[in-house]
Amino acid sequence: MPVRDIVLLVVIIGSLPVCFVRPWIGLLVWSWLAFMNPHLHTWAFAASSPFSQWVGLATLGGAVFSRDRQPFVWSREVAVLVLLLGWFTVTTMYALYPAEAWPQWERVSKILLMTFLVIPFFQDRRRLRILLLVVAASIGFYGLKGGIWVLLTGGNYQVLGAPGASFISTNNALALALNMCLPILFYLAKEERRPWLRLALYLTFLASIISVLFTYSRGGLVGLLIVLSVLFLHWRNIPHVAVAAILVAVLAFGFAPQKWLDRMDTIIHYQQEASANLRLLSWQVSFMLANDHPITGGGFWGISNLATFARYMPDYPAGFHDAHSIYFNLLGEHGYPGLAIFAVFVGLTLMTLETIRKRALQEPELQWAANYAFMLRASIVAYLTSGAFLSVAYFDLAYLLFIVVGLVKVLMEREIEARVAKKPASAGASRTPAQPRRRPLVSLAPRLGRTS
Q1: Residue ranges making up the domain that contains 14
Q2: 440 occurs within a structural domain
Q3: For the chain, which has fewer Cβ within 10 Å, the N-terminal or C-terminal residue?
C-alpha cells in the first residue's frame, strides 16, 4: 500500500479525538484539508476518502459540548451573510436544474457553516494568528513549490495547484488564491519574532510572486499588480514592496520565455484571443439569463449548463462554459437580489476595515489591528479584482477572511474597553485619603527664611 496514503490516514484518524475535545483545533485541521488538499497528493484510497467530512463531524460534535466556546458575535456583516445563504436557498428552490443545484447548495452551506463556527472559537489573538498561519502555509505550499519549479525549468511550464477537483487546481484559481495569500504571508512575516519562521514566510512570499507570474494567468498578473499596489499604499511597506516589484520586473522582462510574453500581450489585444472572446460571450449568457429570471436567476449551475447555452447562445463554439466572473456568476445564478446582497456584504466589510484602520492608528498598542486591517484589505481586494475574471463566488478562503474582519474588530474593541476599565482603578489606587499631598521642598524655602 502507498506510504503517503497510510501516513495521511493515520494523521487524520489520530486527529479526530483532538478535533472533538478541542474544536478550535478541528477547525485548523479542516482549514488545512480545505486549502491544501493533501489527500489529492496521494495515489490510492486516501485520494477519495472523505477526510474533510470526518473532521467536520468530529469538530461539530465537539462544538456542541465544548466549554471553550465563546458567545456567537452578531454583526451587520454576519447578518447579511446569513441573508445571502437564505437567498441561495430560495434560488435553489426555484432553480432551473434542481438535480444539479441542490448538491451545490449543500456544498456551499457546509462551507459557510464551518466558517460561522470560526466565530465562537477564535475570539483570541493567538488562535487567530495560528489560523492565518495555517491558511498561509496551506496555500503558500503551492507558491513555494511552484516558485522553485519555475526557477528549475526556466518558466516554460504552467504552475498548477492541487491535482484533481479542488478550488485551486487550475492555473487561474491558483493565481487568485496566491494573490489573496500574499498579504497574509507579508504581514505575518512582519510581526513574527522567530527568525526562522519570519525567513520562511518571506521566502514563501517571494516564491509565491514567481508562481503567480508563471501560472500564465492574465487575471493573476493583473491581480498581482493590484495587490502589490495596495501593499505599497502603506508607507512602512515601501522597501519590501519595492523589492517585490523589482523581482516581478526582472522575471517578466528578463527571465520569462517568449510564450509567456505572448500570453500576457493578449491582456491588451484581447480581441484576437479566443478564450477572452469566449469569456465575453459567457458574460452575455449570464446577463440574458438574469434578465429572463431577474429575481431568482437560474439557481446553482444555472449558467454552466449545456441547455442554458443552447437556449441563449446556440452557436457557442465550446458548447458551454462557466460565468468566469464572481459578479456574473452571482447575477446569473441568483438574480439581481443575490448580486445586490453580496455587494452590500462586501461594502460593509470594507467599511469595517476602514473603521478598524482609523481607530487602530490612533494608539500604538493597537498596531496589530492596523496591520490586520491593511492585510485583510489587500487580500479582499485581490479576491474582488482577480475574481472578476473567474467563477469563484463561493471560494471558502474569501468567506473565511470576511469573518476574520469581524473578529479583528471584536478583539480591538475588547482591548480598548479593557484598557479604559483599568484607568479609573489605577488612578484611584495612586491617590488615597491617607496620603496627603506634599508641597515641594523648594516652595517652603521662602517661608523658612522669614521665620529665622
Answers
A1: 1-69
A2: no
A3: C
Nearest Cα neighbor of 163 from 19, 311, 36 is 36
Give the whole-angstrom CA distance, residue 227 versus residue 375: 10
For residue range 30-65, what is the model confidence (pLDDT) as tens digits? 999 999 999 888 888 888 889 999 999 999 999 999
d(CA 268, CA 277): 13
φ, ψ (nearest 5 deg) of residue 47: -65, -30
Q: Where do the DSSP E strands lie in 198-346?
A: none
Tell me: do 308 and 356 sit in the same domain. Answer: yes
Q: Look at the block and give the residue holding cell 456544498.
A: 107
Instruction: Give the integer Cα–Cα distance in Å for 27 and 17.
Output: 13
Q: Are 325 and 387 in contact (CB under 8 A)?
A: yes
Domain count, the chain: 3
CA distance 108 to 327: 17
> CA distances (Å), 311 to each of 257, 288, 306, 307, 416, in order?
41, 10, 9, 6, 58
263 and 137 within one domain: yes
Span between the terminal Cα atoms of the chain, in Å: 104
User: How long is the chain?
Assistant: 452
The whole-model pTM stands at 0.88
Per-residue pLDDT tens for 90-104? Answer: 999 999 999 999 999
